[in-house]
Design goal:
This protein is mostly helical. The protein contains nine helices and no strands. It is 60% helix and 0% strand.
Length: 221
């Protein structure tokens, strides 16, 4: 015997519609706050630069485009140590290590010092931003270094990993030339001044030594 199926009218769920509506409103407000403010636009540009760098097959001012890094054995060990410590992508870290060594050669710095500053400042998060306005891997405040970022396309490059490392390394080099010691340069970099009091230099130097040991296949306590 054939039984005619009974059609059930859809239930009008007001609560579900309300939640969806509120979600849409929140997303709209967030989108507008990003587009309509200077900081939001700079952040959007930085994200776009990082994303496009990841997709680009050609060399670009980003450390995240797909290409071989050609790291040395020591550099590869360092990258693996960083990736484990900070729980970040190894390929991305390899690119950061590569650019850190490149910047170190340009600015006559210890590459492990650059990498240690990145470790303390951002934990290798290229999109890190502080309440004080510091941005990127080396937590540089773009408004204080407009001339440096102008060489890389403007303030929007602050979240571009390649440009951020270049600018941050240049700042450390300037402080080293001015204040003569690594400790004083790091105190100036963190913002307390070359004669200030902070545990920042010790923290950076401790991580630098750990990275050096890792590069040699050793582990420090």
């Amino acid at each position: 015997m054939n039984v005619k199926p009974t059609l059930t009218a859809p239930v009008f769920n007001r609560e579900l519609l309300y939640r969806r509506g509120m979600t849409a409103v929140v997303l709209l407000v967030l989108a507008l706050s990003t587009v309509l403010t200077e900081a939001g636009r700079a952040r959007l540009i930085g994200w776009g630069a990082t994303f496009m760098g990841a997709l680009s097959a050609e060399p670009a001012n980003s450390v995240f485009h797909a290409r071989a890094t050609n790291l040395t054995v020591e550099q590869s060990r360092t990258a693996r140590w960083i990736a484990r410590k900070h729980r970040v992508s190894l390929p991305a870290v390899e690119q950061i290590v590569s650019v850190a060594f490149e910047s170190a050669a340009i600015f006559r710095l210890d590459p492990y010092l650059i990498l240690a500053v990145i470790s303390v400042e951002s934990g290798f998060n290229p999109l890190a931003e502080s309440k004080a306005g510091a941005k990127g891997l080396m937590q540089v405040i773009p408004e204080y270094h407009k001339e440096r970022f102008a060489q890389h396309g403007g303030l929007g490059a602050a979240l571009n990993p390649w440009a951020n490392i270049q600018v941050g390394s240049g700042i450390i080099r300037e402080y080293l030339d001015r204040f003569k010691t690594i400790e004083s340069a790091l105190l100036a970099y963190v913002g307390v001044g070359p004669t200030g009091v902070s545990g920042y230099p010790d923290k950076v130097m401790r991580i630098r030594e750990q990275m050096r040991a890792a590069s040699q296949g050793r582990v420090l306590a």
